[in-house]
Batch of 2 targets.
Target 1
Amino acid sequence: EAGVAQSPRYKIIEKRQSVAFWCNPISGHATLYWYQQILGQGPKLLIQFQNNGVVDDSQLPKDRFSAERLKGVDSTLKIQPAKLEDSAVYLCASSLGAQGGGYTFGSGTRLTVV
Amino acid sequence: AQSVTQLGSHVSVSEGALVLLRCNYSSSVPPYLFWYVQYPNQGLQLLLKYTSAATLVKGINGFEAEFKKSETSFHLTKPSAHMSDAAEYFCAVSPSGGYQKVTFGTGTKLQVIP
């Protein structure tokens, strides 16, 4: 089966610019997650979708980050305006359901804010 | 609330030696536990998971982990290290019921010395 697709792989922007990341989960996976992984740290959940509804966005900095999952399939994560501390790898993951399964991760988007 | 603590941010072993990566968890409800591996510039890949069945869990690439409730531990082991095992390993925990919110540890980088 095809994996979780993410684009772009790399992005370099200046602070205060905006950026968007795209994720296409595994077909049939209802649950989609965006994680932020800062260098030297473990992934931190930003937002979790169940189909096209938000289940958890408690750690999403809503003043600058937004995410949507229209039609319950692919998703976009946007940062506007970006700050230096947003430099990280943004990982998208999907899973079949809510319990017991591990995630399937995409390869991530490495964002560098200069 | 749930968390995991990975002891040792860097571990070095000789090729052919035992691999032991330590993980202790904290969870207010019965947990599900996971180990993921991350190779450079790639996303995370599920190695194995504990979901309240057998306490000794076997995963891919010869890895296994044992759930010890009395010690709140879920250490990852492999009898004989291979050069290809060099990567970063993440322990993770989620509640056993409801929507998954998986919390990751800070990771352990495994170096395999020839």
Note: The CA atoms of residues 93 and 104 of chain A lie 5 Å apart.
Target 2
Amino acid sequence: AQSVSQHNHHVILSEAASLELGCNYSYGGTVNLFWYVQYPGQHLQLLLKYFSGDPLVKGIKGFEAEFIKSKFSFNLRKPSVQWSDTAEYFCAVTVYSSASKIIFGSGTRLSIRP
Amino acid sequence: EAQVTQNPRYLITVTGKKLTVTCSQNMNHEYMSWYRQDPGLGLRQIYYSMNVEVTDKGDVPEGYKVSRKEKRNFPLILESPSPNQTSLYFCASSLSPTSGWETQYFGPGTRLLVL
């Protein structure tokens, strides 16, 4: 069965530190990949998505992610985090074999120290 | 304004008392879905609907029902709620599930406590 793994459950960083959140998926076929962010008390918002083309995807708020097919990974990065980036981040995958299904990772809570 | 709305936003109920959480979208989206969010488990899909009168089970459908009589509405029904259904529920919609996987738009969430 397809699955999405986010190995970092809670990441704590200081402001201006660089961020990388890991996301790995298990599926050998064509995938679409997403990162969503959930700020405290709010609903999920899309940060960025990968459907095809350039594997380096730029999203909102200075975030980017790189799709590495050989590693089944889609890690999220930001060169310099801000206190306002404190949130929970979810990686998600959809697969073409069951186009109506989206699978979410368990989430990574990011806490930024001011 | 394009949006997905859910009601109620907060609900406390008792075991066995039937409840319905409504979800409505104003974007003429074909695809709608319900998720529950639990700590350490991320979001898990409960049910989804590809279009009017077309619904199917997600990963955790037990104890839930849905209906899709109109394109804009996709209510989630708990016929006999139990404490293990205490969770945060999100409704989402997207234009179509097959045209390159359009972005899903999420509702604000419904926090349910079953005593």
Note: Chain B has a mean pLDDT of 91.
